[in-house]
Amino acid sequence: MALDFVLPTIHDNADGSWGPSSSALEMGPLGYSAYSKFDKVTRIADWHAETDAGASNQRGRQQQQGRRQGREAYGAGDANAFGYVHDEDEKSFSLVDNSSRAAARGRPGGLRGRPTGGRGMVSGQRGPQRGRTIGAPQRGGYGWRGRGGGRGGYGGYDKPQRTRDSSVAIGPEWQVLEELEFSRLNKLSMGVDEPKTLESAGTLQGYDKAFDRINTRNLKNLEIQERVRYNETTTEDPIIKKLADQKAATVFATDSILSVLMCAPRSVNSWDIVIERRGDQVFLDKRGGAPFDVISVNENAMDPPADSDDLNGAASLSLEATYINQNFTAQIIDPKSKPYTPAPNPFYDTAIESEPLASTLYRYRKFDLSIEEDEELDLIVRTEVDAYLGKRSHLITVKALNEYDPRQQGAGNKALDWRKNLDTQKGAIVANEMKNNSVKLARWAVQSYLAGAELMKLGYLSRANPRDAQRHTIVGLQSTKPLDFARQMNVSLNNGWGIVRTLVDMVLKQPEGMYILVKDPNNPMLRLYSVPEHAFDEEEEEELVHHHQPEEDE
């Protein structure tokens, strides 16, 4: 027999407001806490409930939303009326372990191995034109297009983003294999042991210590030095060809190319590295007329030099900086010093060339980039040093920073005049250069480290007249140890080696052929493309024809 069902008493709220009627509030000692429609109603036992801070923020948003919509947030002040808190016990209790765990830092590309130490490799490209330069500027000797990348910091958020050109025209048949964001590259790390110097060639002379006495009260003019200096690409180096034939390493490169890759996350301008895999060997190379042949100016500034053809445009300033570095490096040589020539310059042909050589010693050094104990992965890099100090006991590299016009765009915010302030406020000037030329200075420090140089000599050169880019004055000099300078700029060598190893692993997974790594001109990322084998042959032929054409009289 069915049981009788008795309908419970329903308290109707006659006034139509939200919540129970006044009669329902007469509940004895239990009490009642008002609430709002916008309060989050959860389960009685909700193990996925938000944290105290999250729930508080949620309630605040709900209450604020109710006020914006013209409704009162009922119960806003009584939300925790019945909340039980036991500080000592509850805070230490958790059903599921939500404690943060330190992210395991793996080897680049998921590699595992010993925490420090690794073996390296080098790569290059098919034969571009010879990189011969002399002290005086050459018309048509440099080609550089485009700026790229993003900038951090504040102050430029309201300016329209500049659209920049890529350093190389991307062919329609090129295939994207990998995309590497700078945020990912910054997390890579790999330790590398001390390298071995396999061979040395070229002629090295002593440093003239008289340049250490130059200051703003004792200036010296920059002089044009008619001396030949070479910046050959990897695959055009006869010593690297010999070492590659001997299977002395897996990867081959030059210090200029390798430093760009190791400092990639700092770069703003677009650049590219041509990579060729031949069998089990990888060559990192440059194209003819690539940005590696010139030096950027204030690339990392918040308001960099404009992409114009005038005196203070980005391309003109880069050509000027390259011209200054070539001449300054040759000028600081002591003509009375004894030359050191362990082997002849591999690029100088006495049968067809007669100009005197600039002081340069090429050191071919092998780095071990392996991870596992039974792995063999070596990198041979051609490095350069510019002079020696003392009785060849200290090898040094020489670089030059240049000031063009502190009032012009890209010179830096409220830049100090070097002629007036270098002696008294050198720290502020150096800090400004580190900010505006972060990638350039980082590359110089890495190149000096790769070469095994004990000292870096940084010259400060200013235009004799802000409107004349041909005459310059040396206003000061600074000596620093490469590793100390790298630490001062927060340059991580382990991060650089991690980037190199990651790229090499990517290429070794691909079949034999030609590839190119391009820095995106407008985004902080790198792209690895697969390209046809003869993709750059026509471009190289055009460059060679251009460089062999006689110059017209001005």
From TrEMBL:
Where is the region RNA gate? 291-305
Do you know which InterPro entries this protein is assigned to?
eIF3d
Keyword set, alphabetical order: Cytoplasm, Initiation factor, Protein biosynthesis, RNA-binding
For bias kind Low complexity, which ranges apply? 58-67
**Ribosomal protein is among the record's keywords:** no
Keyword RNA-binding carried by entry: yes
MF term (GO), any: translation initiation factor activity
Known function: mRNA cap-binding component of the eukaryotic translation initiation factor 3 (eIF-3) complex, which is involved in protein synthesis of a specialized repertoire of mRNAs and, together with other initiation factors, stimulates binding of mRNA and methionyl-tRNAi to the 40S ribosome. The eIF-3 complex specifically targets and initiates translation of a subset of mRNAs involved in cell proliferation. In the eIF-3 complex, eif3d specifically recognizes and binds the 7-methylguanosine cap of a subset of mRNAs.
Protein family according to the UniProt entry: Belongs to the eIF-3 subunit D family.
Protein name stated in the entry: Eukaryotic translation initiation factor 3 subunit D
**Which species does the entry assign this protein to?**
Cutaneotrichosporon cavernicola
